[in-house]
Every structure is written in structure tokens, then in C-alpha cells.
Amino acid sequence: MMQGGVDCPNLPAFFCRLPLKRHSHVEDIFDSPDLYRSVLETLPVGVFLADRKRMVRFWNRGAERLVGYLAHEAVGQDGSGHWLDPCDRHGQTLVGNHDPITVTLTNGHPQQCLAYFRHRNGNRVAVRMHTAPILENNDAIAGALVVFEEGFVFREESSGPPMYGCLDSATGIPSHRLTHAVLHECMADLENSRYGFGLVRLRVLGLDEFRSKHGIQSAFPILRTAAQTLRHSLDPGIFVGRWGEDEFIIVLPSANHMSTVAAADMVWSMVSRSEVTWWGDSFPIQAVVTYTVAQREDQLAKLLNGLEPAHAVAAGRAIGMAAGS
Question: Rounded distance, CA 1 to CA 6, Å?
Fold first, then answer.
């Protein structure tokens, strides 16, 4: 044990050897292991500790808030397993040398990346993920510390105008009426702008079939999960709103063709890696994404009718809405 270290029976042993100064006469609050556990619990970020076998040994309240899993559900799980299913912006699962936890456990090097976790509700959440090694006294790697925070500041915290009464009740994002107004405002701004804006439309497939099989209420979790994935995966400067019954519109300010294609592909990947649970069965979401770039002299109606298929969908990578195995 480190000189002056303190054993913490309530935390994993490898995390409890804290180099604290002992006071021989007066008990100091900073000598209490409970203080450090309390600090970890109240941090405004997600924190979890994984041992060498990648098993989660500690999971704080910040992690509960960000991804929805309570501590008793997370502790004992694989730190980068199927339940979190971390992926990159292209929808590729983070494994091997692309998984920060694996790299840190292998060579002890701290890692950081932007990843997309699957929330307990099924939607995707962008997080900035940092890992660091936890070392034994002999410097052997005993586990990994994982800290993650919101990848983007949510729209409620942004400086835009209040949208009371303009949110769609089923999905929690701007309603069709507000989306329509935003599109018209963007079209008007084109006259005084040097840049166009990107326009992406996402349509959820199979809602009618799903609704007829599972009941009218079954469509709402699918729409809300898709909406929350968009909301938690895109920068707050990007507008996301409801359009048709099964459609969403994404507006990318000052975008060119390349950035719009990249955003359309990312949107498709994140929604297609989301899922809903209905009466115990998991259903991946199927969607089709189209896009265009608005320029001067364009008309909104023609733009919406002339959207092009995103590359990912054209390549036939869409996931069917069938029960997960």
C-alpha cells in the first residue's frame, strides 16, 4: 500500500489507495473515503470504473443521468459491451484499437474521442469520452477510469428564443408549424447570404405496418426515439424539427454539398443504430434519408421535391424493423 494510503471498503480496492495525509490528533474530513465517493457521485459528468476484465465496478449518478442506466443495472456489466453499444459517427462499433477502453487497458495510454452511446430508452447520445489507466502500486494496469460528458450542449441550454407551445407533443422537438416557419426564414435569408444551407429529411419507415400489428400507441416510442437520437447527436446550431407524420427536417446553416452529405450519412447511421423496446422485444429503426443544398433563387417547394437519397441509404444498408435477436 502507498505510504499514507487509505483503504476504502465500499469502492474497488485499486481505486481506494489514496495518498492522503494522516492527522494524528484531529480527524480530517479529507481522510474519509466516503468524501471521495460523494464527490464522484455528484460530479456533473458520467464516471465509471472498469477492471481488467472490463467489468463495471462503479457507476455514478452523472452516468445514470446521461445514458439512463441506474447503478444497479450497470455494475457488473461489460464496460463497452452490447448494452452501451458505443459507435462512431458513421455507425461503426468501437472495437479493438478503435475502442478507447481497450487501448487504455492494453497499453495504459489515456484516450479521448466523440462516441455515440445507446441510451437505455434506445436512442443514441453523443458523448465526449475520456479514459485513463488505474494503476496498482507496481504500476501494473488494474483497470480503466472512464469519464464522459454530453457531446453537445442541449437546445434548452442554448441562447435561442423560447419555443413554448411550439414543441411537438409526441417527440419533444419543434413542431411542423415551427419547422415550416424556420424553413421560410432560411429561404428569405438566402438573399443576403453568401452561403446556402443544407436540408436533410429523414423518414421513418414501416410505421403503418408496425402500428397495425402492435396498436396505434406503438408508433409514438419509435418517433420519439428517432427524434431524441437526432436531438442528442447533432450540434445545437443545427435545427431539428417535425415535418410529416413520419418525417423530420434537419437544417444545416452555412453548409456546402460535402458537409450536407456527411451530415445526412451520420443522421442515417445514428437513427439506424437506435432501437425501441415494445412488450419486451427490441426493434431497430428503419429510415430513409434525403438531402439537398439550398442556394439563391431556389424555391422551397421544389427543394423539398428534389431531395437526393443519402449515400448510406442508396447503398442498401438500411436495417429492417424486425424483432432483435
Answer: 8
